[in-house]
Amino acid sequence: MSKIPLHAGLVADFIAIEFADIPQVATENTLFLKKVLRITSWLRLQGVKKNSLIVSLFPPDKNWIALDMAILRCGAIHVPFHMADEISLAAEYFEQYLFIVHRDIKYQTDTKANQIIVTDLSDDFFQDSDIHNSTDNKAVEVDPHHPAEIIFSYHRDCGPKPFVISHDNLLKTAVAAGKELPLTPGDKYLSLLPFSKIYGRVSLLTHQLLGCIIECPQQILLPSRLIKVSKAASVAVVPSMLQYPVKVDGACSQLLKGRSLATLDELPPEAIRPVLGDTLKIIICGGAMIPSDLLQKFKRPLFL
Predict the structure, then answer these.
(1) How many domains does the chain contain in total?
(2) Model-level pTM?
């Protein structure tokens, strides 16, 4: 890997150059960079600049990824939410910010009368804006120790509290995590985690820096089925996702007397790979205590 970006707002530029010779990701990374540049120009038309505070309420999809990158490119600070009932935390802790909300999400009106922009960041949205008149999309210089995200999490026995995550925090953690993953550029990463939490955010950045194809599920399926259908090489989950029933078919169904659903505990070891897919190299599991019986189930080197 070449020298990592100086700040997280340059990741789109970095992966477009670093993996330009990898056919599986080159086109996607180029299109992603163009989207980031377009959103950067649009944000600047809204008055976003260095140290601006941007609160977002968006689903964890590829548009969120581009929006986040553009916010950081402007040197602004991103406060992301995915759940509408958490938005009141922004008003509780912050005075002045720009609120960007996805048009399909219902939300409570901002009690502090901050500017609200409702958008899905689609191509149609940008065609109706004045973005074509702006070329102001260059990344600002940002100190690596400058705040990149403010993420709400639970502090011991208290309620949710804001935690400041610097550019340096994000990048160094992602690079260190990537050294532990048996992945190569072009492998697919299935994202099942919220990007508004640090586990999901760092997992995403880790796989971006490794040159992975990022896939955000568009279907509502059992986690095991999403993993198999996506043909992912890597997926990050919380333990509860591995405790959902799994879809069993074909030869695996015969091992369970014709049943189509089972728990991982009920599966013989030889059935785990067919259930989760032949392309899967690694499952990253964290965010909560992992039951010992679940660890034992994956103790054998099933994915190597």
Answers:
(1) 2
(2) 0.91
pLDDT digits over 218-247, tens only?
A: 878 888 889 999 999 999 999 888 888 887
For 173, the token pair is 């953690």
User: Which CATH number fits the domain that encloses residue 29?
Assistant: 3.40.50.12780
Q: Are residues 184 and 85 in the same domain?
A: no
Token digits of residue 221: 């399926």
- Whether residues 88 and 134 share a domain: the answer is yes
The amino acid at 116: I
Please tell me whether residues 38 and 81 are part of one structural domain.
Answer: yes
Q: What is the pLDDT of residues 175-217, one digit of tens each?
A: 999 999 999 999 999 999 999 999 999 999 999 999 999 999 9
The 10s digit of each residue's pLDDT in 206-219 is: 999 999 999 999 87
For 112-168, write each residue's pLDDT tens digit: 789 999 999 988 888 766 565 556 899 999 999 999 999 998 877 778 899 999 999
